Amino acid sequence: MVEATRVEGPGRGRTVGELIATVSEQFSRLVRDELQLAQVQLAEKGKRLGAGAGLLGAAGLVAFYAGGVLLAAAVLGLATVLPAWLSALIVGVVLLIIAGIAAMLGKNRIDASKQFNANPQEGFKDDLDAVKKGIQQ
């Protein structure tokens, strides 16, 4: 049978078991408090990210409308030297050419991505073989 040993300290003597129980209780309280702090910090970060994403969305929408205004300005600018219908037609054709080029580039990128064959099983096999070799040596 093990006897409880009294540890003298300031104020009163406590057994080693009492000290271990106190340390265990304080440690678990510390872990809970740290988890709560991390949760509060993540919530705050989420709020800030949400606000930033909202502002970026608003900026994108305003930029979209600004593009429309600039296209109208291009049509009106050309209309000073050409008939208005011809100015609008020229700007529209240029926009369709740009859209066609972007579509072809996008299709080429998609086709190129289909050729890339990701195979994570091979990487796991290589890692497993390396671990096996390390254990055997």
Summarize the structure in words:
This protein is an all-alpha fold and 137 residues long. It has two domains: 16-68; 82-132. The protein has helices at 16-78, 84-115, 120-136; strands spanning 6-7, 14-15. Strands 1-2 form a two-stranded antiparallel ribbon. Strand 1 (6-7) and strand 2 form a beta hairpin. Helix 1 runs antiparallel to helix 2 (84-115). The longest helix has 63 residues, at 16-78. The radius of gyration is 35 Å and the shape is elongated. The mean pLDDT is 84.
Q: Give a count of the beta strands, DSSP E runs of length 2 or more.
A: 2
Distance between the termini: 46 Å
Helix content: over 70%
Strand order of the largest sheet: 1-2
Order of helices and strands: EEHHH
General shape: elongated
Strand percentage lies at under 5%
Task: Give keywords.
137 residues, mainly alpha, two-stranded antiparallel sheet, 2 strands, 82% helix, 3% strand
In short:
Pfam families: Phage_holin_3_6. This is Phage holin family protein. The protein is mainly α.
Fold blueprint:
Blueprint: E1 6-7, E2 14-15, H1 16-78, H2 84-115, H3 120-136
Antiparallel strand pairs: 1-2
Helix pairs in contact: 1-2
